[in-house]
Design goal:
heterodimer; A: 167 residues; alpha+beta; Ubiquitin-like (UB roll); DNA polymerase, domain 1; 2 domains; 5 helices; 14% strand; B: 778 residues; seven-stranded mixed sheet; five-stranded mixed sheet; 32 strands; 24% strand
Chain lengths: 167, 778
């Protein structure tokens, strides 16, 4: 069947079977391999993507159900110049990355949290990541990266606010 | 060694950028035009004789291109080290549920599975052993290979340490305690499952991209089972999505299967495992039953230890002979004893199989001995930290193995540091005064550990690195040891940058590839920083010598008059000359701009019969404290805080070292509280993350970590190691904290809800159904 949706901000149309998951659609039909397959039962979060801005496990989403919706994968998360955005830079700076297999999902989960909660506590960050398993890091430096990004973005907003007020 | 510019300074991982962008290609992300997909028929019973295996119906299935069985390998695909008891695909018998029997390559994963289902495989069930205590009974079914020395075929080995006669010494001790402790199997749970991609080469050989730790082992195995010379087999390690000891033997079989299929089909063949297939087929941390007897005097002097245990290797020996040996060396803990004996026996059963897993035997024995040490402290009414401080190993001590510790023993400092950081003394007092009727009770517990660095007496211990300056003046390094997420490539980069005096951005470390790197032994035993790090140091120093000649020649002065400021070379004229100019001049002088560095570990020896010697050339030390809150109504244990201070020698890559500690502690927390890859009658009871629970971000506490840098004179810049020992003490630390909270001791891991609340296990009834279904689904 033909599936039309917005993928990483671009309209796409793909002919794919109706009985596959969004994860398979992304990996096999779009070759977007940043979205990882690790359990296929919705437990590990390695296949996390944003569906209309909300965090979902793409292994639990039927591919045709994204018709008309907006999907963002790790390949769609970057700065304007195509380089890493602030969250991704903080993952690097804080040592949040080891083997890296869970990391695309962690970045997506971090963005999903920061979109709805601008200044989460460390516990709130941990709760937001509870659906994303990491076996390497013990999560400490991942929490650090998200916390730092939240603070950086808050500073940025305050700064912009001040700039606007002073004009 | 003062004023280090890169070593020990803040740095970032060399491979992090690609990973955060989602661009890193793991083996399952790779595909080639015309590539085939492979799937393996796996045993659905724990023990049986293959009486019929007809693969011809699979070849009739549309899309199936090739099928391989043990007949397609030299000597039936026999391999394995130190005991060659495994096959690339089952030969004559299957010994565990999940064992590979035949592999199919097809144009789609669905066709490969249809091919697997079409194979006619008749297996006559054989009686099986599911309890390690039954393995050595005279009438036990034979699981292990037939042996000619008259010993039981299910017997793998005996691993002793002997000092004096503890049996006699116990009679002189004021206090003697004796207890049994038990550990269960643990799943590695690397996020990336097993996989390999084989590509037939024009000259009739094969290249394999393999998610593994030690590429030279499968390269050599493939040469043997495929009958190919070493120059026709190449194993390349792509980025590895976690391993923790787990991507060896099973994935060497994957390598054999995809390589044989690729040679037969003359097309690239990729195999990747589902999570269920991964958990069912893969080896685990083995289970151990321990009996520990300790003797001490009223003044708190520990005098004697007798440790006896049985270790279950399951269907294959894999790394268990080495795991058991490492377990024996660490079984008595990091303490002085007048008399000590350790006896570990290791056996075959049909309960999956056991192999390498972070900590490698020490994780198992530490959970026993560190509880026993606490129980002895309780008996003596001594504070557990005071008791450990009184008896722990220090510089100048002789270990129970007979080894003089002449340097780099930071254990006392680790214990003192965690005592202070955790506010131990105040909390011990406070928690002792909790109301006996309180449903939620706090507790705090401690452990001390030692962990031998590198292979020890397991085998030849050396590593080789190469370094080269290319025409664009970028520097590349090869090492035969793998960075499977640990940060090793960053460690090599920082060491080379420090020696060469250049910016780390100029340096690139290749992933291991048997065609370009030199065999440096296995990437195991937390040996990479010392072994590979030292070989990179030596290679960089060798390269540096040529640059020094060139600089002196360019500056027209004696080599001793040249010094460095930043990357620049400065001679008597004080005029800085850039590194690039010196490199260019070296080229013009005809000097080679590549070098080779080999480092061999100090000589050690072990007498396997007498149980004495020098098992390791250096030791890591550490201490952890955990604070818990136990809900006596539900049995739930909340780990509130963990403090960890480890002596890893000089810290080379701080961010990475902390990451290793935090990650190791998460494996240990899972091992202590809920991880139990339980097998019932040979069938794994958890086959995915919905039932096999590993710690999530909310299960992990905030961890306060620190390092004691008791430098090791022969380590690179004084470094030792961190990866394995980070997890070793965490489970017993939590168990000791639970005992402090509840007054009850849980001597069998894990301390799950029922053991904490009821003090016993719930009855389980295993069903083979889920395993059988999972091996035949897409």
């Amino acid at each position: 069947m033909l599936i039309n949706f917005i993928l990483n901000q671009k309209p796409v149309s793909v002919d794919a079977p109706a009985d596959i998951t969004l994860l398979t659609l992304l990996r096999d039909y779009f070759k977007l391999t940043g979205t990882k397959e690790a359990c296929e039962v919705g437990e590990c979060g390695a296949c996390s993507v944003l569906l209309d801005g909300e965090l979902v496990n793409s292994c639990l989403v039927a591919a045709p159900s994204v018709t008309g919706h907006e999907v963002t994968t790790i390949e769609g998360i970057h700065d304007e110049d195509g380089g890493p955005n602030d969250l991704q830079r903080n993952f690097i700076a804080k040592g949040a990355v080891q083997c890296g297999f869970c990391i695309p999902g962690m970045v997506i989960a971090g963005e999903a949290l920061l979109a709805v909660k601008s200044q989460p506590s460390r516990l709130e960050i941990r709760e937001a990541l509870a659906g994303n398993l990491c076996r390497c890091t013990g999560y400490m430096q991942i929490v650090d990266a998200i916390e730092t990004t939240a603070n950086d973005r808050a500073h940025m907003r305050n700064h912009e606010e001040r700039e606007k007020n002073s004009q | 060694m003062t004023n280090l510019k890169y070593v020990g300074q803040p740095a970032q991982r060399v491979d992090a950028l690609e990973k955060v962008m989602g661009k890193t290609k793991y083996v399952g992300d790779m595909s080639l035009p015309g590539m085939l997909y492979a799937r393996t028929l796996r045993s659905e019973i724990p023990h049986g004789r293959i009486i019929k295996l007809d693969v011809s119906p699979a070849l009739e299935v549309s899309g199936v291109i090739a099928v391989v069985t043990s007949d397609d390998f030299v000597n039936h695909g026999n391999f394995g080290f130190p005991i060659s008891d495994m096959y690339m695909l089952a030969f004559e018998k299957v010994r565990y549920v999940g064992e590979g029997i035949a592999s199919v390559a097809a144009t789609t994963p669905e066709a490969a599975l249809a091919g697997v289902k079409a194979i006619i495989c008749e297996i006559e069930p054989l009686p099986a052993i599911f309890d390690m205590a039954d393995a050595l009974k005279p009438d036990a079914p034979q699981v292990g290979p037939t042996r000619t020395d008259g010993k039981h075929p299910n017997y793998i080995g005996h691993y002793p340490v002997y000092k004096g006669n503890p049996k006699e010494k116990f009679q002189d001790c004021d206090v003697v305690i004796e207890q049994k402790y038990e550990t269960v199997m643990q799943e590695h749970a690397y996020l990336e499952t097993e996989g390999g991609l084989a590509i037939p080469t024009p000259e009739g050989g094969v290249s394999v991209y393999l998610s593994c730790q030690s590429p030279f082992i499968p390269r050599n195995d493939l040469c043997k089972v495929l009958g190919l010379p070493a120059d026709r087999v190449r194993v390349i390690v792509p980025p590895v999505g976690g391993s923790f000891g787990g991507k060896d033997d099973l994935n060497y079989q994957t390598a054999g299967q995809v390589a044989a299929l690729a040679l037969k089909a003359k097309r690239p063949v990729r195999m990747t495992f589902s999570r269920e297939e991964s958990i069912i087929a893969s080896y685990k941390r083995g289970s151990m039953r321990m009996n520990i007897k300790l003797g001490a005097d009223h003044d708190g002097t520990l005098k004697a230890c007798e440790f006896r245990s049985l270790y279950d290797s399951g269907a294959y020996s894999s790394q268990s002979p080495f795991t058991s040996w490492r377990a024996s060396i660490h079984a008595m803990g990091a303490y002085r004893y007048e008399d000590c004996s350790v006896d570990i026996d290791t056996v075959y059963t049909n309960t999956g199989y056991a192999g390498a897993y972070r900590g490698f035997g020490n994780t198992e024995v530490c959970s026993g001995i560190e509880q026993a040490i606490d129980e002895m402290a309780d008996q003596l009414m001594m504070d557990p930290i005071d008791f450990r401080l009184k008896n722990c190993l220090k510089v100048g001590d002789v270990t129970p193995h007979g080894q003089l510790l002449s340097e780099s023993v930071g254990l006392t400092d680790c214990l003192l540091a965690v005592r202070k950081m955790s506010d131990w003394d105040r909390k011990r007092k406070e928690f002792a005064n909790q109301s006996p009727s309180a449903e939620k009770r706090r507790g705090i517990g401690v452990t001390a550990l030692f962990h031998g660095t590198s292979l020890g007496a397991e085998g030849l211990d050396e590593a080789t690195a190469t370094i080269e300056i290319h025409s664009d003046n970028l520097v590349s390094i090869t090492s035969g040891l793998t960075d499977y997420g640990t940060g090793a490539r960053t460690v090599y980069t920082l060491i080379a940058a420090e020696i060469l005096g250049i910016n780390p951005d100029r340096i690139h470390v290749h992933n291991p590839d048997t065609n370009t790197a030199k065999d440096s032994g296995p990437t195991v035993a937390s040996r990479t920083t010392i072994l590979a790090g030292n070989s990179v140091r030596v290679a960089a120093q060798n390269l540096m010598q040529n640059l020094d000649w060139a600089a002196a020649d360019y500056l027209k002065c004696d080599i001793l008059l040249v010094h460095r400021v930043g990357e620049d070379y400065i001679g008597p004229s004080e005029e800085p000359v850039s590194w690039d100019i010196v490199v260019k001049h070296a080229r013009e002088m005809g000097l080679v701009l590549s070098a080779f560095g080999r480092w061999s570990a100090p000589q050690i020896h072990w007498d396997e019969e007498k149980g004495t010697g020098t098992p390791y050339f250096a030791y890591h030390f550490g201490s952890q404290v955990a604070e818990v809150e136990v809900d006596l109504k539900t049995g739930h244990t909340d780990v509130i805080n963990i403090w960890a201070v480890h002596d890893i020698g000089k810290v080379i890559f701080p961010q990475g070292a902390y990451g290793q500690l935090y990650g190791g502690i998460s494996h240990g927390l899972g091992y202590g509280l809920y991880e139990d890859l339980d097998y019932q009658n040979g069938y794994a009871q958890s086959i995915n993350f919905d039932t096999y629970l590993i710690p999530t971000s909310v299960d992990m506490p905030e961890i306060q970590a620190g390092f004691v840098e008791a430098t090791f004179s022969q380590g690179p810049f004084g470094a030792k190691n961190v990866a394995e020992p980070a997890m070793v003490p965490t489970a017993p630390t939590i168990l000791n904290a639970i005992a402090n909270a509840t007054g009850r001791r849980i001597r069998k891991l894990p301390a799950n809800l029922e053991r904490v609340m009821l003090g016993k296990e719930l009855t389980k009834k295993g069903s083979p159904f889920s395993c059988k279904v999972a091996l035949k689904i897409t």
